[in-house]
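Tokens in:
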């Protein structure tokens, strides 16, 4: 656990839950602790610590287990799930793109609450949508949509006991009459009380992974090739576990028939064999042919895909962090695997002094590794050993992840700083917007609303516009950094 990661996690907890929960989380991040140790270390009242731990556990951000004395509970932080919160906007956008608004709100409510029973979720979403007419139809629609999310494995049961995989996706017992009674002011006990549901992050990551592959293929070739890749991935899931490094063989004639039937990409239909041949021969090693009968079958090589994409990302980062000369040297070492400094100087056409400076800069930043090998006893010459530079990709990946955490921390600190500096103005804008929204909801318009809006002066509007642009830019940068981290995580998972 690194210092940069610790800083990012604490800021995430501060932004979403406040300082008390962030302090408690920071203590159990450093070292899993008992309740007594946390209270003593944090200098926070016992009641506040208990409340903080209950919130962290509810959102599956902390876990606990019995100590060796079988009496004391030891609490530890679920680091992975905290970092996952940075990816929640992508999850919501993914559902929005695949389904409609009600699906999006169902997922958003689960993310906001951590976990909910199915009936509680439908009640909250119904109230949020504010659909008073045809409420029975709306409830049935929400029930069907929620069941669809479970069937598609975007949502799963929150299990305190070890359940089989199939049991995690058993449809809940939802009684719409009971839900309607609660909405009408009743206090009936709902039949699914105690059965909680949460987000299945693996399913969302599967979609994000596929999206990343399809987008990279589309950018490298064209939309027709991207569609071919998407169909190959779809057919892969029919016969293969989604997270294997190499899929089971996919008959290419099946894919061809699907392309013809859908007929959404005429050029792909017309030149299907050529597209398949180009994809097979690509250096990325996206697919591999197995068998010759009836056009043959192809395996999707997930490990090769993410190895190649990761190398491309590393080379781009080297170029951005250092310069084009460093990028040239890095690519040369990659292509030769092991290479002596003198060979690098001869091949890159850069002055020897500059090559040495760049090599040791890359070495210092952990992008290169040095191996010193002893010469044989019979070899002639004054030197008893020689130096070889090479790249350990896994080490480079971990260095890049640290850089990502450092950048994330700087971005989040800048956002907090801007909010702190302009807190008065932001609060004023929020109050004005709340008042005008309430007036419009009551049917008030015209000069009355305009007078309230003019409480924000033109200079203040300019400042708010500048802040808005900066916040948007910082958010986009945060998303791009998370994209890079997701790619690196995928590489480490398949490695």
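Residues out:
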């Amino acid at each position: 656990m690194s210092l940069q990661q610790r800083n990012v996690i604490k800021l995430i907890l501060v932004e979403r839950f406040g300082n008390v929960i962030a302090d408690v989380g920071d203590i159990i991040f450093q070292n899993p602790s008992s309740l007594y140790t946390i209270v003593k270390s944090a200098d926070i009242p016992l009641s506040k610590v208990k409340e903080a731990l209950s919130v962290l556990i509810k959102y599956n951000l902390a876990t606990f287990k019995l100590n060796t004395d079988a009496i004391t509970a030891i609490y530890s932080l679920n680091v992975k799930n905290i970092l996952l919160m940075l990816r929640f906007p992508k999850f919501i956008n993914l559902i929005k793109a695949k389904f409609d608004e009600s699906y999006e709100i169902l997922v958003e409510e689960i993310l906001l609450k951590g976990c909910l029973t199915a009936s509680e979720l439908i009640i909250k979403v119904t109230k949020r949508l504010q659909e008073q007419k045809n409420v029975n139809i709306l409830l049935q629609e929400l029930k069907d949509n929620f069941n669809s999310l479970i069937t598609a494995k975007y949502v799963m049961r929150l299990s305190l006991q070890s359940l089989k995989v199939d049991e995690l996706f058993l449809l809940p017992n939802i009684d719409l009459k009971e839900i309607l009674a609660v909405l009408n002011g009743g206090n009936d006990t709902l039949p699914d009380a105690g059965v909680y549901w949460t987000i299945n992050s693996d399913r969302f990551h599967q979609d994000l992974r596929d999206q990343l592959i399809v987008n990279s293929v589309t950018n490298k070739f064209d939309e027709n090739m991207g569609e071919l890749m998407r169909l190959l991935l779809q057919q892969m899931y029919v016969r293969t576990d989604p997270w294997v490094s190499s899929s089971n063989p996919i008959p290419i004639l099946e894919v061809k028939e699907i392309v013809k039937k859908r007929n959404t990409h005429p050029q792909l239909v017309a030149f299907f064999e050529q597209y398949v041949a180009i994809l097979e021969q690509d250096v990325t090693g996206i697919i591999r042919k197995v068998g010759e009968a009836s056009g043959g079958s192809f395996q999707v090589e997930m490990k090769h895909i993410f190895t190649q994409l990761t190398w491309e990302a590393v080379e781009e980062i080297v170029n951005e962090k250092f310069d084009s000369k460093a990028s040239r040297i890095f690519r040369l070492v990659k292509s030769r695997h092991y290479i002596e400094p003198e060979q690098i100087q001869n091949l890159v056409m850069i002055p020897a002094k500059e090559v040495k400076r760049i090599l040791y800069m890359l070495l210092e930043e952990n992008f290169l590794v040095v191996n010193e090998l002893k010469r044989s006893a019979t070899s002639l010459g004054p030197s008893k050993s020689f130096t070889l530079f090479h790249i350990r990709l896994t080490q480079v990946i971990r260095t890049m992840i640290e850089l990502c955490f450092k950048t994330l921390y700087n971005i989040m600190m800048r956002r907090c700083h801007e909010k702190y500096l302009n807190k008065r103005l932001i609060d004023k804008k929020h109050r004005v917007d709340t008042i005008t929204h309430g007036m419009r909801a009551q049917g008030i318009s015209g000069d009355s609303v305009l007078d309230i809006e003019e409480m924000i002066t033109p200079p203040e509007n300019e400042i708010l516009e500048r802040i808005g642009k900066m916040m948007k830019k910082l958010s986009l940068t945060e998303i791009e950094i998370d994209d890079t981290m997701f790619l690196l995580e995928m590489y480490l998972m398949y490695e």
